[in-house]
Amino acid sequence: RKEVEQDPGPFNVPEGATVAFNCTYSNSASQSFFWYRQDCRKEPKLLMSVYSSGNEDGRFTAQLNRASQYISLLIRDSKLSDSATYLCVVNWATNKLIFGTGTLLAVQP
Amino acid sequence: EAGVTQFPSHSVIEKGQTVTLRCDPISGHDNLYWYRRVMGKEIKFLLHFVKESKQDESGMPNNRFLAERTGGTYSTLKVQPAELEDSGVYFCASSPGLAGSYEQYFGPGTRLTVT
């Protein structure tokens, strides 16, 4: 079983749609959780950290369920510029980031 | 503030040759990490420096890979001799030395092709 699992997609959605990505992780000792965004042939860029209480940044909302070892990202009112790969990332105690394979989002005009 | 920089952006070498990748972290960041993405796979951790010390090198694939961070500033990752399976994108990341701060900031990567 992979340490971080994501649906690879692609998710093809129209502009303005709401889209949700899910991710599960295997190590219950994981301490920190993130969503990174990666554009084609670019580096991963931190989108947001994910906290147990859930957190929101504009159109983006992240949730963490430690009991189920599940992380989600919700994007509302999708824009063309949201098209990218979204990486679910988990951090163990040693600062080592564990990446999922990413979920590809394509927002259509 | 300048971000993480990496050099070169691309490198094409023949099997058996040596390549050295360089990473300059964000100024003042004590933590420096190397990661690699091979085609079709997820990004994987290679190693972690705290200042000039190797904190965790559990992800280094074998002894053909040597990472250094003399003086605790920039870091180099040398592959010698390179094999075909070493092809991929090598990312460097850095983070501050603050307790509880685990957010890492990535450089643009070096795309290595071994032929």
Write a brief caption for the model.
Chain A contains no helices and eleven strands. By secondary structure, chain A is mostly beta strands. In chain A, strand 7 and strand 8 (70-75) form a beta hairpin.
User: Count of DSSP E strands of chain B?
Assistant: 11
Enumerate the spans of chain B where pLDDT stays under 50 for 5 or more consecutive residues: none
Mean pLDDT of chain A: 93
Radius of gyration of chain A: 13 Å
Main β-sheet description of chain B: 7 strands, mixed
Termini separation of chain A comes to 37 Å
Shape by Cα distribution of chain B: globular
Strand composition percent of chain A: over 45%
Structural overview:
The complex is a heterodimer of chains A (109) and B (115). Chain A is built from no helices and eleven strands. By secondary structure, chain A is an all-beta fold. In chain A, strands 2, 4, 5, 9, 10 and 11 form a six-stranded mixed sheet that branches. In chain A, strands 1-3-8-7-6 form a five-stranded antiparallel sheet, with no helix packed on it. Chain B has 115 residues and is an all-beta fold. Chains A and B meet through strand 5 and strand 10 of A and strand 4, strand 5, strand 9 and strand 10 of B.
